[in-house]
Amino acid sequence: MDHADRRPSRTAPGLAIALLSGLAFGLAGPFAASLLATGWSPPAVALGRLAGAAVLLAVPLVIVLARGWRPRAGQLRPVVVYGLVPLAGAQVCYFSAVGHLSVGVALLIEYTAPVLLLGWTWARSGTRPRPATLLGAAAAVAGLVLVLDVGRGAAVDVVGVLWGLGAAVCLAAYFRLSAGAGSGDDGTGPPALVLTAGGAVVGSAVVALVGVVGLLPLTATTTPIVLGGATVPWWVGVVLVAALSTALAYLTGIAAVGRLGSRLASFVGLSEVLFAVLGAWWLVAQRPTTVQVAGGVLVVGAIALIRWSEPPGDPVPVAE
């Protein structure tokens, strides 16, 4: 739930933290694309990202536990759900989409989550959305058509689009779970560090299990990768996606929600799309077309309109 009495003294630092989180999240796609280009499978990239983050967060997690933090009733369930959905599920789906589509297109499909959940909530509750919300949904669909370049007869990679939609479904759980973290005002949820580190452990275990049983391929190589025109060892990509785009990204994201509330933080979180497109252009030479840029602007604006049109007191629709 959002809090109407957010103090101005918390807003400025919160905005800075939210932008840092958007930058860190946005660069995950380009880092992953550099690994995928050398033969890594999407689940392997996701496992490297999550396992690396779990290792990096192990020491601070031990410190938190040594200081006496113990889980309260019901606090372990959010950690498990966080690891299964926003971490394991979203990463595998998003990286799989990046394997078929450009980083910007894959991320924009993922960011249609508010539109998908709007339709789900309407069908479930029977409550008609506000006119501005419906206008935003229509604009988002139109923008997505431009992003996919359908109008010019471009071939649409259906598999990539489906993976992107899967990532969109997983995205819905992120802000709700983050809002309940211990960084929030009520303090009823697990601390942000516990939520992120514990979720990374759970997510790593799930992705590893899926790979071991053969449901999805786990393939990795030691071939050097190319980032920003420079050739670097493969492990550089893994470290960057684990440390910057996972550990730092999720911790700052949870902290931003705690300072700004899920509503404002979700608006600022749209900066991830901009950072992802610019990062993909710079790091892996994925330059969007003019039509795709226009479609991306339309999608981001439409999502902002949807979030603005819903009153702050309304519950955020999430997949259950």
Automatic annotation (TrEMBL):
It holds the Pfam family EamA. The chain crosses the membrane at residues 12-40, 46-67, 79-97, 103-122, 134-155, 161-179, 191-214, 234-257, 264-284. Keywords: Membrane, Transmembrane, Transmembrane helix. Residues 13-148 form the EamA domain. It comes from the Bacteria. Belongs to the EamA transporter family. PANTHER family: ACYL-MALONYL CONDENSING ENZYME-RELATED, MOBA-LIKE NTP TRANSFERASE DOMAIN-CONTAINING PROTEIN. This is DMT family transporter. It comes from Actinomycetospora endophytica.
